[in-house]
Amino acid sequence: MAQRKVSALLVLGVLSGFLPSLAQAQSNAEIEEAITIFNRGKSLHQELRYEDAIAEYRAAIKLDSTSPFVYNAMGLALAAVGDLKGSLKSFNKALSLNPDLTDVYNNMGMVYAESGQRDKAFEAFGRAVRNPTYLTPEKALYNIGNLYLEEGNAELAMMHFRRAVEKKPEFSLGYRGLGKVHLMLNDPELAMMEFEKAIEISEDDTESLFQIASMYQQRGQSAEASEFYRRVVQVDRFSPIGKLALARLDALKSGS
Asked: CB-based contacts of 85: which residues, under 8 Å, 6+ apart?
């Protein structure tokens, strides 16, 4: 099955949450083995070896089927290979084991959005934001803002991106979102300011770098545009945005 990247904001479960149920007659050796397998799966996941990670998560579940963190991690890996139905099933299992695992709602929201179930996506993100124990509400707020941006609702998109950076001022994606809203509103000066804030925080934010380069190119400032296209290529030459930046850089060099 073809791999896909659902979102950079999907959250992988942390090892500290992998706790066996005391109601199960498990040996310490089984528990330790399950933790080792889960750790191995997480490492494979971070290496983008999703199919291998899924196999490890399944093996961990055979030893302990009561850890919501393993089901959350497996949901992420399944989403990455395009199995959105299986992903949602795994996330729902995680929530059945721990309804307060708020990261799962954010992850589910991304999968619902990817599968075109926008109402359910809004609902899932909203549940994450409303949970006072959620440690990273800026992520769900950003995702809500993106949904409104896709709908062309600049006012609500801006409101949620602003809330995201209010929650966490160093959240670069929030400024990127604000930059996109200002572009939608035909205000390139304010857009430039927001994209610049984003790359001050995250200098490898290729999308913000590309937007800045494009705006310089539109102004006829070829040297500045080339500098930022070059930065995109240096960060991620082989991604779609990196390839487009390289093509534009070559065009600027040839004067076409």
From this structure: none
Separation of first and last alpha carbons in the chain: 40
Q: Is 5 helix (H, G, I), strand (E, B) or coil?
A: coil
CA distances to 16, 49, 88 from 22, rounded to whole Å, are 16, 32, 27
Residue 32 is predicted with a pLDDT of 85
* Contact assessment for residue 10 and residue 75, using Cβ atoms and an 8 Å cutoff: no
Contact 14, 136 (CB under 8 A): no
The length of the chain is 256
191, 183 in Cβ contact below 8 A? yes
Cα–Cα distances in Å, from 109 out to 59, 92, 143? 26, 12, 8
Residue where one domain finishes, among candidates 159, 182, 202: 202
Domain-embedded: residue 122 = no
Q: Residues 91-132: pLDDT tens digits?
A: 999 999 999 999 999 999 999 999 999 999 999 999 999 999
Instruction: Give how many domains the chain has, as a whole number.
Output: 3
What CATH code is carried by the domain that includes residue 153? 1.25.40.10
Statement: residue 254 has pLDDT above 50: yes
Residue 106 CA to residue 117 CA, distance in Å, equals 14
Confidence label for 28 from pLDDT (cuts 50, 70 and 90): confident
Dihedral angle sign, alpha carbons of residues 213, 242, 232, 162: positive
